[in-house]
Batch of 4 targets.
Target 1
Amino acid sequence: MLIEVSQSSVLDVYQMLVGLVTPRPIAWVTTMSKTGIVNLAPFSFFNVFGANPPVVVFSPTLKRDGTKKDTLLHIEATREFVINASTEQHAEKVNQSSASLPPEESEVALIGMETVPSIHVRPPRLLGVPFALECRLLEIKSFGTGPIAPNLVIGEVITIHVDDAVLGVDGHPDPRRLKTVARLGSEYWCRTQDLFEFSRPK
């Protein structure tokens, strides 16, 4: 198969890319509107981008009608967000939080999660998840217009909350305890517990 992007539909290109570039970690992002409504949404175009300073990136693409998602609107307005862990325990709720709600309704209430205040940013973090990253916006880079057009949100991590229960004896996160989930193509997800190890060459 050969796909010429310029001759293919946006949706076909999207489905092919998300099916090939896998697994993709899921940022479960809390933001807050200027009126105090807490938004919660998952994004699988997500990764950590560096540690000095600690930087994370994720992309809230435009909706299928070409308009901005609430997450993007809130970050543009407040310049703050929190990335919460997406784990096997909460996988169904992560999926449910992708539902399209009116801006005045909160996904947190819809799926029955609770929040606790963050330390340095207004958006709260989720209660009961093994980690949360409080972030301040560095920059938003927008590319293209129309359905599924990407908006790269670049944020600096200013506070890291970690449940001690997911740390190993070395003090580092143990993936067997963390039990994160990731997105594949189509409707598929995966667990990150099928592990193997390599030592880095010296």
Note: The mean pLDDT is 96.
Target 2
Amino acid sequence: MAGESSGTPQLVAVLMGGPSAEREVSLSSGRECAQALRQAGYDVIEVDAGPDLSEVLTKMNPDTVFNALHGRWGEDGCVQGLLEWLKLPYTHSGVLASAMAMDKTRAKAAFRAAGLPVVESLLAGRDAVRRAHVMQAPYVVKPNNEGSSVGVYIVHENANTPPQLSDEMPDVVMVETYAPGRELTCTVMGERAFCVTEIITEGWYDYAAKYNEGGSRHVCPADVPEDIVAICQDYARRAHDALGCRGLSRTDFRWNEALGPDGVILLETNTQPGMTPTSLAPEQAQQAGISFPDLCRWMVEDASCDR
């Protein structure tokens, strides 16, 4: 890298925090990544991203931006567009892929076009979902453009009444058929798919299960047949390509064992997987022999502002 070849450590700005519902997760991810990058030999400045981000980065003039933001604004193409305008290389996916992945309806359309299996879904008004079942139960209600299982409601088959969604839910939500089965996930680094992890929880793999200690258990690698591993890896790579992702992404699945290979359903792709102590992507990289500092170093080396 240019900074390293001249004997001067490259300056990396780690973006974290931000205004989204996933602020606390982002702060945790950012601190972990900043520490790892320092171990890898970079000069690092931690930036709690706010409305003055353009001014802050212009004054700082970093060589690379490590985007550890999560959720809307930091993960949906907005910050990516700002970094493109400033001509600053940044990690993870570009503007279009980030925007498509965050919009679950558009992402599903891209997956269907690529021949990937997804469940049926529709968009409905929050008040309409409160009044009556808009789809035959069981189904799931979630924001169309949030991540980390923020605001997820499961409506079970025997539910007599529709879900009473919180006022914090957006005016329009996604309603999708519930996919039963085991929770599996696979990370893609560039063109390489890592092992498959099974996520075991008591109930739904929601925000608390993802980020609270003891909220879930990861089996890495998953104890599943080799053909299921191969299918998940293939689907994860194809989902990565269908959205036009670069850098790191992670795709989540449900697998209904009773249906064998036909029981693998793609849920969604995360273009900026969590990088906290309980996160899946670093765990899968470690399983592949890639330490956390080396993973972060690879992401900085892969950074771009024009692809």
Note: The mean pLDDT is 91.
Target 3
Amino acid sequence: MTRIVIVEDEINIRETLQEILEFSGYDVFTASNGKLGYAVILEKEPDLVLCDVNMPELDGFALLELITQKYASKIMPSFLFLTAKVEKEQIRYGMNLGADDYILKPFDPVEILKIIQLRINKREKMLGPQSGKSSAYKERFKKLTIPTEEGLELVPFEQIIQCKAERAYCFFHLIDNKKMLVSKPMKEFEVALINNGFFKVHKSGIVNLRFAERYVRGKGGYLVLSDGSTVPVATRKKDELLKLLKYE
């Protein structure tokens, strides 16, 4: 499982990021300052680090310098800075130290997940097939982490037919006519679903095209899924969807 370390002294931001990333299937570790973060990074050897710039004990720049020195002979984890404001000099300084990107606070959950996935993909290409993460290992974690009243439920992506937004909540339609109501907005799961072959047919619906039975044309076109449900398709999504369906 992909490992991420969050180094952030503001507890609300740290816990929010941890929740977002764990729901997206990442293995997450946290630290409340740069000194603790350095120890966690060396112990856990993460794939990516999310780090605040201004922190007690050891700031983000000093932490990145130490990590860069420690990883001098091997590929270091992707390093993203979190900050409320950025001066050009700061950006230049951080990039010269080895930072991959800056993320401004307040951040958008969907955007931050996209940036993280992009950086992780680039790092995996650099590491190559001998990165120590075999395809068999990765396959074990082809699951979406869904919060329930009892805790976290790990649901294989291939068992999810669609995710449907319902205001601040969303419904997961699973095989065998199972449904799960989740007290989280659909956007928190969007990147993880799309990265695993799902398609966003409109602003409140993401479907697993493996379960598409047919597309019905018309002014308001819609998909018929294998469980008998129908999902409207946004006009601007129709051409892209039809192109994908031809190759399914």
Note: The longest strand covers residues 160-166.
Target 4
Amino acid sequence: MKKKVFEENKLIIASHNLGKIKEIKKLLNPLNIEILSAYDLKVKEPDEDGCTFEENALIKSTYVSKATGLPCISDDSGICFADLNNEPGIHSARWAGKEKNFDLAMLKINEAIQKIEKPSYDCHFVCALSICWPDNYDITVSGRVDGKYCWPPKGDKGFGYDPIFKPLGHELTFAEMIPKFKHSISHRSVAFKKLINLSFPSLNS
């Protein structure tokens, strides 16, 4: 697969989630190009009606790239609980409601798990990253990190469901970890590393 360059020296993050934008910007920092977001440019979010994380990521990157005429990177991520048939999954953001209240979403998850007899507490985060260029060329990859459900929520350094997720082999939740360390082991980091060889030649030289 050929590598693409960023001819306009700009890349748009297709998100209005400020926590997600901040995390992706840190991963993209070595690119040395101007990085903006759909939030900055007031580009509305498209309907995410895909059946997988990868489909939804591609919907967002394609939509924002067409709207701006610039290369766009999008992220579709969520948490899956084995005890809940891998819900909320691609609906992770929807569980937080229109106000994106993840405290409420985490309460919903806890209530659901409490109803399960002998829960395993197994869960995993998934992140699909998609880059789309204005000529419709795209690359989409995904990453995953496994862990255990933690209750009550712990930590204030992350966002979303980070306070209730302990990655396997670690005693701290994502929200308790130093952000730089979390970024090095997260599902987003796993997916981003897959993009390096395909999309970011300047990071692989």
Note: The domain at 10-203 is CATH 3.90.950.10 (Maf protein).
